[in-house]
Design brief:
Layout lengths: L1 E6 L2 E4 L4 E9 L6 E7 L6 E7 L5 E3 L7 E6 L4 E6 L8 E8 L13 E2 L3 E6 L1
């Protein structure tokens, strides 16, 4: 099992930036994928982006491409989500999740371990 703890959420004005972090501990996940998802009230959980921990390869949803960047800090076992040019529609609870496979997928059901989530609110 992988324990994931998100931090860094908050309230920001449209056009602003936030940086979320996901600290991971537990089983070794050198071959894992760490993904970011978000869920707005009344909506399904949606894929934001993910990183292959070993290769550093990333993949993003079209809605955030060019605005969000995922990076990893191997020494700290942390994955970061840098969010720039935030829009009100980015408002949601953001979750990080781990997948014990090397291939990035967009389906929440493919991820076995989840953090508790952190709220991001973007005001207009």
């Amino acid at each position: 099992q992988v324990l994931l703890v998100e931090s860094g959420g908050g309230l920001v004005q449209a056009g602003g930036s936030l940086r979320l972090s996901c600290a991971a501990s537990g089983r070794t996940f050198s071959s894992n994928v760490l993904g970011w998802f978000r869920q707005a009230p009344g909506k399904e959980r949606e894929f934001v982006g993910a990183i292959n921990w070993s290769s550093g390869w990333t993949y993003y949803a079209d809605s955030v491409k060019g605005r969000f960047t995922i990076s990893r800090d191997n020494a700290k076992n942390t994955v970061n989500l840098q969010m720039n040019s935030l829009k009100p529609e980015d408002t949601a609870v953001y979750y990080c999740a781990a997948r014990n496979e090397a291939i990035i997928t967009k389906r929440p059901a493919d991820y076995t371990d989840w953090g508790q989530g952190t709220q991001v609110t973007v005001s207009s």
